[in-house]
Amino acid sequence: IDIAVQDVSGAASSVSVLRHAVAFDKRLMLFSDKAQFMVDSGNDVLSPLTVSVDPVTSFAASLVCRPGTAGRYIYFPFDRDGASGIREMYIDGVTQTEDAEEITSHCPTYLPAGITSIIGTTLENIMLLLKDRSRYVYKYEYFWSGQEKAQSGFGTWDFGSDAQVLGGSFFDNSAYFLVLRGSQ
Fold it and tell me: Where are the alpha helices (DSSP H) in the chain?
């Protein structure tokens, strides 16, 4: 299926280069550096004749970091003035519209620019943010009480001055990291 998409401004020069696709709430969300889109085919089978891609939000997003999902939310970073911010995308249950709140607005310079990976698990209610070859892993922990986020916060894990965290993943509720120390 080959289609062109425009961001919500509708300007002739606003063709968006799609960088990431994420399954979300029985939908496929597409991300460019300046907008987010939803792929739909109505009630028909997805095909070149039935596909539509509609802009749903218009937020800056990282070109290199694939958005991470946790439960009913998508988390995606954006860079600003030497730091990274994180947005939490959701579907409003009342209006059935998409939106994304910045969860770093209270600490706008805490995360370094250039977040390259987001991994998370709903078993522990945590998202881990990695910057390529950094010694640090940044964590975002949250607690939901019903439909309301009762508590959330950021923290940092330091793997030591000789460490470079190359990647990580969750298996069940345990996080595993690939860490380079010297040549090991």
Answer: none
Q: Which of 24, 1, 9, 39 lies closest to 76, judged by CA?
A: 24
Please give the span between the terminal C-alpha atoms of the chain, in angstroms, as a whole number.
44
pLDDT digits (tens, 9 = 90+) for 111-154: 999 999 999 998 999 999 999 999 999 999 999 888 888 999 99
What sign for the dihedral angle of Cα 54, 56, 61, 65?
A: negative
Q: Exposed, middle or buried, 105 (CB in 10 Å: 0-12/13-18/19+)? A: exposed
- Residue where the block lists tokens 């290199």: 64
**And the tokens for 39?**
């792929």
Q: How many CA atoms within 13 Å lie on the side-chain side of 70? A: 23
Q: Which residue has the tokens 């069940």?
A: 172
pTM of the model: 0.88
Radius of gyration of the chain (CA): 18
Amino acid identity of residue 106, one-letter, is H
